[in-house]
Amino acid sequence: MSDDSMSVAVLGGGSFGTALASIAADNGARVRQWLRDPELAAQINREHVNGRYLPDYAINPAVVASTDMAEVLKDAELVLVAIPSKAFREVVRQARPFLDERQILVSTTKGIQEEGFKLMSQILEEETGFRHIGVISGPNLASEVADKQLTATVIASDDAETRTRVQAALGCDYFRVYASNDRYGVELGGALKNLYAIAAGMAAALGMGENTRSMLMTRALAEMSRFAVSQGANPMTFLGLAGVGDLIVTCSSALSRNYRVGQALGEGKSLNEAVDALGQVAEGVNTVRLVRDKAHQEGVYMPLAEGLYQVLFKGVPARDMARLLMQGEQSSDVEFVLPREDVQQDRRATGGRDD
Ligand SMILES: NC(=O)C1=CN([C@@H]2O[C@H](COP(=O)(O)OP(=O)(O)OC[C@H]3O[C@@H](n4cnc5c(N)ncnc54)[C@H](O)[C@@H]3O)[C@@H](O)[C@H]2O)C=CC1
Ligand SMILES: O=C(CO)COP(=O)(O)O
Fold first, then answer.
1. Which residues form the Glycerol-3-phosphate dehydrogenase NAD-dependent C-terminal domain (predicted)?
2. Residue 249: nearest ligand to its CA?
3. pLDDT tens column, 114-163
4. pTM (2 d.p.)
């Protein structure tokens, strides 16, 4: 599976960027990693460890870190952009003078830009106009990837060359890379599941059980799919690793930063306290607001996103919100089988209350 001839650049010195850089190096690629902090770059080069974001894991010594964008991007065939959504466009603009259209550009970031509700690969496209553009997403907790736990991800692109080159660059005996041509669906899945990871962390902190977590995850999938359909995406993609796969892992693990923010909120901390205690980016916090506003504007029924918004930004206690959600509409289980409107109509026809 290895592709020794490939030259890979990773933009971002965080946990996932570092884990991916190490995989590519394990696979025999020439790997350069760009980050802002010269001391962290020096530590990666000297000790082969990222003490700030992945202190407990060894990085392949072949990864060369640098703060010099031109040097990192020189001759790179594949560029992985692992920068939080808030800074994503700014970093791509910084990189732009050193990029050329033969390169493959792949986002690993699971977030949404507020202006225009843009996903990160759309930003890559807008800023460069290149055609080899893709997205990596899936159940990929960075520390487990760095620990070489058996893991799978998805490379999504409508460009076959992007898919096959990324499979060759990153696929190895502990990391499998499945292909999708639904870039938008895969990327949307990665961004949306962060909301429900926050909710799952909250539920755990409130002492709720496994039935509750299972209900939450399944209804989250229904809500994500409803939103996807409203945006013209293919909900079938959510049956894969980047949908249900990522939902399972982030709603089940305190290794997820979004889950940890939820836990802190469930313990009664304010949003600021929860985010400060984390000390890293939890993309879901911003995504809750953006998705809730979009759902409002477009009339999409998203009770979980609305409930999260009320807890995060309106000070409603998490326990009160859980109680309210349990009093909401008892709707269709799988809306692709029995449409929600049919359930509402049945209720009216049989004299029941219309929620
Ligand atoms: N950590 C994880 O388990 C996974 C993360 N992701 C996604 O990957 C994206 C990037 O992730 P991580 O490596 O986890 O990030 P991180 O939160 O561990 O670190 C972010 C990195 O971006 C850098 N950064 C922030 N603003 C910057 C700016 N203006 N200019 C230059 N660098 C800047 C930080 O210095 C840091 O090196 C996240 O948005 C997340 O959605 C995806 C899968 C797994
Ligand atoms: O997306 C992730 C795992 O697939 C990482 O989740 P967090 O950003 O919540 O840590």
1. 182-321
2. 2
3. 999 999 999 999 999 999 999 999 999 999 999 999 999 999 999 999 99
4. 0.96
